[in-house]
Amino acid sequence: MQMNKIMKSFIIALPVVTMMACSSGPSEAELEAERNRIAQEQAAAERQAREAEEARVQAEAAQRLQAQQEMVEQQLDMLQKEQTVYFDFDRSTIKPEFQALLSKHAEFLIKNPSQSVVIEGHCDQRGTPEYNIALGERRAQAVETYLLNAGVSSSQVSTVSYGEEKPAVMGATEYAMAQNRRGVVVYQ
Q1: HAMAP family annotated for this entry (predicted)?
Q2: Can you give the pTM of this predicted structure?
Q3: Which of 39, 83, 123, 158 is 20 to 30 A from 57 via CA?
Q4: What is the pLDDT of residue 26?
Q5: Which H/E stretch holds residue 184?
Q6: What pLDDT, in 10s, does the model give residues 64-76?
Q7: Among candidate residues 161, 152, 153, the one with its CA nearest the CA of residue 132
């Protein structure tokens, strides 16, 4: 019986010992395959990190560009609210109180060379239509000259005279006539 137990133990132990003896470590091919797999995973992770960084940089650049465009639009909106220069009767000389206003327009145009303006010259109804067209032209040219002297490119500025044709305020009062003697900076 004892022999029987030993024999049974031997029969059970033999396959276990055989399996342990056959199971040596991984082969060189298996190790190389594992190293390649790890290298590919690292390369993929690095590529993903690079792509994520590029996407972040592009998104930041797009946000900066959008913010800059919004700022330009805000500046343009502000300037379009203050675009009129008023003149004395029968004069085309820019008054000192309008120089700061024109300087703001000049700064904006210099910083934004793609912007252009048309300067409209206007007059009150006194005088002949021919005289008023000529006076309106001189007023528009006075504003143009101011902008050009401030550094604005001549390709950004053009002039037109409407004379008395487009009054801002109807009437023959001194106030109405003063409102019609103007040069207007109109953005295109």
Answers
A1: Pal (MF_02204)
A2: 0.68
A3: 39
A4: 81
A5: strand 182-187
A6: 999 988 998 998 8
A7: 161
Q: Is 183 helix (H, G, I), strand (E, B) or coil?
A: strand
Residue 2: C-alpha distances to residues 8, 9, 81 (Å): 10, 11, 113
For tokens 């300087």, name the residue: 103
Q: What does the DSSP 8-state code read for residue 179?
A: H
- The secondary element (H helix, E strand) that includes residue 182 is strand 182-187
State which H helix or E strand residue 33 sits in.
helix 28-81
The single-letter DSSP state of residue 98 is: G
- The full set of domain ranges for the chain reads 31-82, 85-187
Write out pLDDT tens, residues 131-160: 999 999 999 999 999 999 999 999 999 999
Q: Is residue 182 within 8 Å of 87, Cβ to Cβ?
A: yes
- How far apart, in whole angstroms, are the C-alpha atoms of residue 123 and residue 166? 9
C-alpha–C-alpha distance, residues 82 and 133, integer Å: 24
| Structure tokens that stand for 29 in this block | 């091919």
In angstroms, what CA-CA distances link 94 with 10, 35, 148, 167? Answer: 118, 80, 14, 19
Query: Which residue type, as a one-letter code, is found at position 11?
Result: I
Q: Containing H/E element for 53?
A: helix 28-81
